[in-house]
Amino acid sequence: MVMLxxxxxxxxxxxxxxxxxxxxxxxxxxxxxxxxxxxxxxxVLIDKSAxxxxxxxxxxxxxxxxxxxxxxxxxxxxxxxxxxAARVMVEAGYDLIDxxxxxxxxxxxxxxxxxxxxxxxxxxxxxxxxxxxxxKDFPLTIKIRKGYNESDExxxxxxxxxxxxxxxxxxxxTIHGRTVLKKYHGPADWDIITQAKRKLPNTTIIGSGDIxxxxxxxxxxxxxxxxGIIVARGAVGNPWIFENLRAVLxxxxxxxxxxxxxxxxxxxHFTSINEVYDLRKSVRYFRKFLAQYARLHxxxxxxxxxxxAAQNEMELKEAITEWYGTV
Length: 327
Fold this sequence. Notes:
By secondary structure, this protein is of the alpha/beta class. Helices cover 45% and strands 13% of the residues.
């Protein structure tokens, strides 16, 4: 049964894994797929970099044959460069292209990319139209926030962008229920997602923001009328969220992995990272995942402290063995 359709991509569940810079690498994507997520995304790419074919041949950027369908997200401020990047990404093997009009990171905004485009609605529209013309019928989506700030003008710009792309062939619109300036502070506003679906009933609307608890997340999707949800921070160090979202949809009980299973997945994740990244950097890189994995452990404060203190592979493995047991 198809529960979500984005262009030619069909999914049996109405959720997928978000594009996250510095997180959604091959190791994380593999775990998402393992736990039941049918559509995955690589990390966010800058258009100028994504437009260079050689980038996609780097080991850490290369798409595996077992990763389809996979989406790629790009951000930039020049329509022509964004279109070129999208074309190169399609040729590199991506199955869907997403345009980022949402990222709130200051250095991104200073360069006029992503969330900054909510201050320049016509430029955002021009980028979309140029990429749409380049890709023809290829799956193309956008991710956007509810506005740059809470002003009436900002809200008008938001509606101008999403209504225009909806009329010009967008395959889905992901809406994050916070403004750019709010970043990730405070609760996400899902009323804006409800309003968007009512105003654009024939457009696929994906809800984003505060997707952590499986039951609450599915309830948000259903009550808002959204066609699906996108899982971002809620999947970091918790690939079980995908399995549990399926469980909620199927009226089955969610489950919390026991300590032994947590340890097994942590080891698997770390091994996968070592296959892509330099071992000397792997432990440092893995810490941001470990901090979230630790939250599931009954002794999470102590576990987090010791895992984060590991300076090398040996110390990390010793800490994992102490708190999660042997394989």
